[in-house]
Amino acid sequence: MLKISFIAHDRKKEEMVNFVTAYESVFAPHELYSTGTTGTRIMEKTNLQIQRFMSGPLGGDQQIGALVAQNEMDLIIFLRDPLMAQPHEPDIIALLRLCDVQGIPVATNVATAELLVRALARGDFAWRELVHKYKPGVDQP
What sequence ranges are listed for the domain MGS-like (predicted)? Predict the structure, then answer.
């Protein structure tokens, strides 16, 4: 079971709901997280249970980032709106940087999300189980 987060900017929320609905059966066996409104909207349209954090601008991105920093997140789907300025842009950049540092796959558009979810469905994320079993810098496989 992997830990997966969903984040979507306002103009991308509908797209996120449609995407998660299409892949509900793939996401169902996993531990799911989301920022506030995005998670609520997904749960209204699916049977998925999602642990919701605060709204992104109120710290939800940072709450997910804290899990990433501890290497406790396996996949993030973050549908960003590149055409709209975000007041919490520094938080967004920090989250993406943490994903790069920890090697956490992150999709920022539906095309990349589609590739990652298809890999998830095939079982291509088994390497993340090793990450959880052997903490880098602590244990040696």
Answer: 1-141
Give the active site residue among 61, 91, 100, 139. Answer: 61
Query: Would residue 138 count as lying in a domain?
Result: no
Mean pLDDT within 63-76: 94
30 is in an annotated binding site: no
105-125 b/e (C-beta count within 10 Å ≥ 16 → b): bbbbebeebeebbeebeeeeb
Supply the pLDDT for residue 115.
Answer: 96
Residue 26 included in any domain: yes
CATH number of the domain encompassing residue 82: 3.40.50.1380
What is the spatial distance between Cα 127 and Cα 9, in angstroms, rounded to a whole number?
Answer: 30
pTM: 0.88
Q: Is residue 139 part of a domain?
A: no
Phi first, then psi, for residue 134 (nearest 5°) are: -120, 105
Question: Which range marks the domain in which residue 116 is found?
Answer: 3-133
Instruction: Say whether 61 is catalytic.
Output: yes
Counting the structural domains of the chain, the total is 1
